[in-house]
Specification:
Blueprint (H helix, E strand, L loop, with lengths): L12 H9 L4 E4 L10 H8 L8 H5 L28 E12 L2 E2 L19 E2 L2 E14 L4 E15 L2 E11 L4 H11 L19 H8 L4 E3 L2 E3 L9 E25 L3 E25 L13 E30 L2 E8 L3 E18 L14 E7 L3 E3 L5 E4 L3 E10 L3 E11 L4 E4 L8 H7 L2 E14 L2 E10 L17 E14 L4 E14 L2 E2 L2 E4 L7 E2 L2 E18 L1
Antiparallel strand pairs: 1-26, 2-4, 2-5, 2-28, 3-28, 5-6, 6-10, 7-10, 8-9, 10-11, 11-12, 12-13, 12-14, 13-18, 14-15, 14-16, 14-17, 17-20, 18-19, 19-21, 21-22, 22-23, 23-24, 24-28, 25-28, 26-27
Length: 566
Amino acid sequence: MRKIYAIVAMLALSIMTISSSRAQSVDFGGTTFNNDIVGWNDLYGMSFTSHNYGTARSMAMGNAFTALGADMISASLNPAGIGMYVESDVSISPMMQFTKSPTANAKSFYLEGTPKHKQKYSDHCAPFGLASAGGVATAYKGTGAITNVNIGFVYNRIADFNQTTAFASLGNPGTESLANIFCTLANVDGLKTNNDGTMPFGNDPFYWGTTLAYKNGLINKDDEGWFIDRIDADLAEIDQYSAVETRGSLGEYALTIGLNFRDVVYVGASLGIQSLNYKQTVFYGEDYIYAPGNEPSGEVMPYQLTYMNYEQRTRITGTGFNFKIGVTARPVDWLRIGVAYHTPTYYSLSLRYGGDMWSGTYSAGNNPEDYDINRNGYMYDNVGTPIWEDAGPNSWNFRSPSRLMVGAAVTLAKRIIVSADYERSWYQSIRLQQSPILGLSYTDSMKTYFKGSNTLRVGAEMYMLPFLPVRVGYIWNGSTLRKGYENMVASHPLPTKQQYITAGFGIKFTRSVYMDFAYQYGITNYTDYQTFYAIDSEDETLNIQSDLFSTKTRRHIAVITFGVRF
């Protein structure tokens, strides 16, 4: 959780109260918490990739291009492949992606028959995007040791964040509400209201959800502490609705130079500038349902919540830079062997965060507080937070993993190419280097949970006709979690494994003009997660937890490349 003041000792009394209270034994988390910071799970998620995007040709062959080269993806895999171009090339690769993220042991977010135009959240999305674009030019051709020098400027998509999960959990006990979580948090950390009963948003957005809960009537306060007085825990059943929508991508602009030494050895280097755009909306809603004839008494509970909706919005943007070097050898015409090393990418990120909560309350009694009640007996609250921003000197800086790639490609009968890559990525080496929170470090989490991950990419291309190549491929990304943590329940779901099946074909219209098509089907596995929890390490009877959920993402990606060589 966010502890802006936890490291600063002997400050004002209010700061001391927050610092000491957060030393309590209760851990708060789940998808509805900790969206106001860049967490260790975010650093990992923004670093996780199988390198499955690129041109239609490379994607159809599973991006197994560490040794193969002569493709725009080479700038982001093995820059030595840029040296394999024998003429200049310009191409663009737009893509369409269909993503579906079903959640196991969960109900539909919407009632059966709800019209599509009324469905704000669903577990699928279909955005357009750009997989690759760029150009490679021959800057030098010679007859000596250096056969040619090529320079390329290429954009390649590295990772994609476009997906949505949406599901419901129905008939939960009245004691398992997000209101209970906020009430516990307010009591544990000793949150206060003003003398007039108002509660402004403070300068720690970790508590803004609790403030919204108070302003919407989910929790209340008297001299003895915080309590819930608009939900009858014994009589109510709670239907819970959750949706997490993420949008954006991670793309790399690579300035690359590739050298060809007598068509035998190729050497290359790339300076990569990565642009990250990540937008997340977390929605959580509750309906409070009482069986007919079993409603709370208006005298005992004059105000009764009927629903609550809570939406949080997080935007993370920034840039990073890295350096790649590679070499490919072709000892004989039919064999290529390539090796490439990627330094860590060093990012500087800005964060914006805000949220809203709205609720409906039924006045079952004689309205003792004299609220503004409509003629049907209801009142409604809708409160928004300020916008929190970490930027400039308060930005988040981190270092992603370094990567090592090796590959081999063989040519058979001058018509068939078979290529294979192995990639090693050291996720345990991710480091938070600067943050606006004093003393914050995720080093222990990275070392504890993550390990080096193995990725295998294989592909093949066969020319059915001189102008018609057919391609297939496969990508397998192994687990990133250490032994003993494979089944961990993280606060937010963590992608751990991926695999893609790929296929495509190309058409050469002329010697210079070509067009390629590719299709990928991929599955991403995630760790199990909860929408909320409050875990008391000293007294398990005080624990409050939502159900456990498991989500998989299935992606259908279609890409077309238009290119010209000259």
